[in-house]
Amino acid sequence: MCCGGRGETGGEARAQAKSRSSRAGLQFPVGRVHRHLRKGNYADGVGAGAPVYVAAVLEYLIAEVLELRVGHCSAPTLWNISPQSLRLATFKTHLLFNRTFDLLLPNLPSILP
Fold first, then answer.
1. I want to staple 33 with a disulfide (CB 3.0 to 4.6 A). Which of 38, 51, 88, 90 is the partner?
2. Could you report the per-residue pLDDT of 44-71, keeping only the tens digit for each?
3. Secondary structure of the chain in HEC code, one letter for each residue
4. Position 12 in a domain
5. Which residues contact 31 (CB under 8 A, 6 or more apart)?
């Protein structure tokens, strides 16, 4: 019995499974985000692209916060990230953003609510 039939041992091996995170080029776990979106009762159904998008946004936000922390840290060689250093970095950035926003948009009643 060389050809066909059930339980044939010969043939090609199955390809190695690729995670959705690696397919999307992300470090955050897309499968875990999908599970939490389903279990969280946020909607009746969760599409296939939603967890990829949420994982990408989370990864971007974490990268930005870490970059802010390194930029505002007095000793950038320290690897421990404390809540105080994150709060200080986001506070300084918030002040900078507000000043830039005030310079870019003048006080026009038609624009502001």
1. 51
2. 999 999 999 999 988 888 887 777 777 6
3. CCCCCCCCCCCCCCCCCCCHHHHHCCCCCHHHHHHHHHHCCCCCCCCCCHHHHHHHHHHHHHHHHHHHHHHHCCCCCCCCCCHHHHHHHHHHHHHHHHHHHHHHCCCCCCCCC
4. no
5. 19, 20, 21, 51
Between CA 58 and CA 62, with CA 61 as vertex, the angle to 5 degrees is 85
What's the pLDDT at 112? 47
Domain that holds residue 48: 20-104
CATH of the domain at 75: 1.10.20.10
When mean pLDDT is compared over 10-14, 26-30, 59-63, the highest value belongs to 26-30
What span, in angstroms and rounded, lies between the C-alpha atoms of 28 and 21?
Answer: 7
Q: Report if residue 15 sits inside a domain.
A: no
